[in-house]
Amino acid sequence: MIEKRDFYINGAWVAPAAARDYQVIDPATEDPCAVISLGARADTEAAVAAAKAALPAWRATAPETRLAYVEKILAIYEERFEEMAQAISLEMGAPIDLARKEQAFSGTWHISNFIKAAKDFEWVHPLGDGTPGAMIAYEPIGVVGLITPWNWPMNQVTLKVIPALIAGCTMVLKPSEEAPLSSMLFAEFIDQAGVPAGVFNLVNGDGVGVGSQLSSHPDIAMISFTGSTRAGKAISVAAAETLKRVCLELGGKGANLIFADCDEKAVKRGVRHMFENTGQSCNAPSRMLVERSYYEKALEIAAQTAAETRVANPREEGRHIGPVINKAQFEKIQGLIESGIKEGARLIAGGLGRPEGLNKGYYVRPTIFADCTPEMTIVREEIFGPVLSIMPFDNEEEAVALANDTPYGLTNYVQSMDGARRNRLARSLNAGMVQMNGKSRGAGAPFGGIGASGLAREGGRWGIEEFCCVKSIGGWAE
Ligand code: NAD
After folding, report:
1. Which of 134, 216, 374, 423 yields a CA-CA distance of 20 to 30 A from 437?
2. How far is CA 416 from CA 174, 287, 294, 412, 426, in A?
3. How does residue 208 score in pLDDT terms, banded at 50, 70 and 90?
């Protein structure tokens, strides 16, 4: 059992103010794998005070100085990469190959992209032609609170900590209590890089405790949050009294529009994408909409792909999916599968209960429902498990209407060989991101949504801007 009770405050690992142990459960075995502490108000206060004290000196450093620290963090992360992959696999059940190639890798990927964006970032620049002496300056917003979920832990932590450092902010990170080990390791990297004391602080805790203390704290200027739409609303309410900036990355219910002229791998790719990370991705393509003339063929490929999807222990190497994060999530997913059956969707793969041969661990059967209709619970709610809903459409207009019929708007997907149609759809789908024919967004592109998915934009230049205030200056000496 790993024991990690201390918090990283003001450049040192310190014991919590009050003993409140919390067991981190290995989702593959249902047994505790680590024990951490949940912070009390005194811990939050100490971390915020340290960040506040460190702010004047840190914001006054040259951007190049801050960038040099980030480059050191990247080098240490690369050196200790395997430790990171193991920590993520243990705490949230990602199969070890996925933990290496996607989960841990997302951290180094984002840091590298931020380094590139920071090199091109113009911290002070002229407003434009014809306005002599008018300047625009980007300045750090101040002390920031960073609250992250468990599903892509290093993806989310690096998308917040790194641009905050680059912008000149100081910070308190509260990672998910379900998956805190990777963040504690990341704090070690920051310590090893010699980032000045107080610039980065980590306090473990739960939402009602440290999470809401940060959200309402008068010395915090901004909360950057990734997690559920429910918690995003609670944070916005808590932050209102102190008029903080609140940047939210929330849930999703992505549509994947499959036209009859799609490439032959489109359906298989869509199903695999849905099941990746055991369906626990905010941008999962969880609603597959298929043109009617291709519908039966698509169902056949989808069912076959689900049948071929192995579910196995995350410690095993190879291509398979692992368990979901915890008991509550397992039960929620079972309840939603049950609702799909009761509400009349046609089960073509998977179903209730654990996969054969797996009696312990929060394993879910890769499940696909066909003939879904827009009002079904499985079509409306974010399931956050390996469950795909498929429905037919007759024309492009109907496909867009179905795709946009959700309060969420994170990522939508299009599969078609017709370029003109793809470009039309890229503009008419309501979402922060549209990905077509299996192509991802470019390096350094912003990640974020609209509506119930939150309005934040993380990554690259846009990610740095989120941690800045824009200052307008007149009378700047040439
Ligand atoms: P969650 O909202 O339960 O928890 C996320 C974090 O918020 C945790 O650190 C938790 O302790 C904290 N928290 C919970 N309630 C809080 C409150 N009232 N005040 C302050 N902090 C609070 O979410 P989760 O179950 O950990 O993660 C899954 C959710 O995250 C899904 O809905 C998923 O779609 C979403 N997500 C979104 C993105 C995105 O970028 N849009 C990325 C990944 C995950």
Report:
1. 374
2. 42, 16, 12, 13, 12
3. very high
